[in-house]
Amino acid sequence: MTTVTLQEAKDHLRVLEDDEDALITSLVEAAEGHIAKYLGDDLPEPMPAPVRAAVLLLVGDLFEYRERQAITGVGGFQENPTFQLLLNPYRSTEVL
Asked: Cross-referenced InterPro entries, in alphabetical order (predicted)?
């Protein structure tokens, strides 16, 4: 599987040091896992640029807000329409 690399994520986050490599790696794994579930399938291979951008957006949110707990009505996470715009064309749809 083509995955977002640690270096790509660090570049996106503008992190220069290696102190948070383990955290960033785990955030990439979490973001890719979430996006695979959102898409309803495995991540596309090779990973298209919009899907890669969505992974990086989610990694950025997870990194920036890693200390915050989402509490309804008190600064909880808001849905990012860009995330959906990037991913919706790649979602699996089943006809029943």
From this structure: Phage_gp6-like_head-tail, Phage_HK97_gp6-like
